[in-house]
Prior knowledge:
Blueprint: H1 3-28, E1 36-37, H2 41-51, E2 55-60, H3 65-72, H4 78-87, E3 89-94, H5 100-107, E4 114-118, E5 124-129, H6 134-142, H7 151-159, H8 165-177, H9 181-193, H10 203-212, H11 219-226, H12 228-235, H13 237-261, H14 265-279, H15 285-301, H16 305-317, H17 324-328
Parallel strand pairs: 1-3, 2-3
Antiparallel strand pairs: 2-4, 4-5
Amino acid sequence: xxxxxxxxxxxxxxxxxxxxxxxxxxxxxxxxxxxxxxxxxxxxxxxxxxxxxxxxxxxxxxxxxxxxxxxxxxxxxxxxxxxxxxxxxxxxxxxxxxxxxxxxxxxxxxxxxxxxxxxxxxxxxxxxxxxxxxxxxxxxxxxxxxxxxxxxxxxxxxxxxxxxxxxxxxxxxxxxxxxxxxxxxxxxxxxxxxxxxxxxxxxxxxxxxxxxxxxxxxxxxxxxxxxxxxxxxxxxxxxxxxxxxxxxxxxxxxxxxxxxxxxxxxxxxxxxxxxxxxxxxxxxxxxxxxxxxxxxxxxxxxxxxxxxxxxxxxxxxxxxxxxxxxxxxxxx
Length: 332
């Protein structure tokens, strides 16, 4: 056989191999999670209880980009489809149609997608908010079957008095994944306030504090703020200042939302008071800007517009930096 014929045959063989591989791949990736779409929740709940299975509830909207990514990729991964179809009763509900708005309020859905694992009695045992790669999503979903790792199971352990590092960090991480930031902050306050103060400056704890500790009324946070210069020496001025700025910004934002919704107002007012006390007398420009933003938010939230305008006038008289965002955001 000549060289030309040999090359021609090899090319043909390669084409067949590649084509077969593509067909095999396409066939292997043809499965997806079989959802009940917008089915009556009461009926799905009864079915899950009868089968002794959890409901995998995909709370989505038609305009949500990450929802579409999950639906078109992760939920069509063969290993995930097989696992979910065998293990759960799968329900997909548009939160803006039919029964969706009612279920949105029932389960406190505030972001999309919200992916919940619900038992036959209607209790959320585990929750994931947002999109995730297939491997990460599968690992997090498997936790729903292990009471030691679910949000509900960890809550029970922590509230039962297990405040060990293992349980507290696992619980805060689960709450972070579930987008339960308010509750995460409450757990962080309990956990970090109980640690020896000197240990709060250690790198392992600093990394956790940056991630979880956002309560200005926390003794641990107050200690960290009093050690600002030491933290800057240890971990860099930029990172430390960004952390404090983020905490103060979150405090102001939470107060603003509380004024608007008339919920948790006393809690957020107490945090605002703690922030005022912490920053009282500070000459740090960043701290002063945060304090001014807090006061503008308080005045706007209580309709004290004379004080709101008076504060802005005072800033201008003192040649303080006044930008449109700082002035308008508290009132919007």
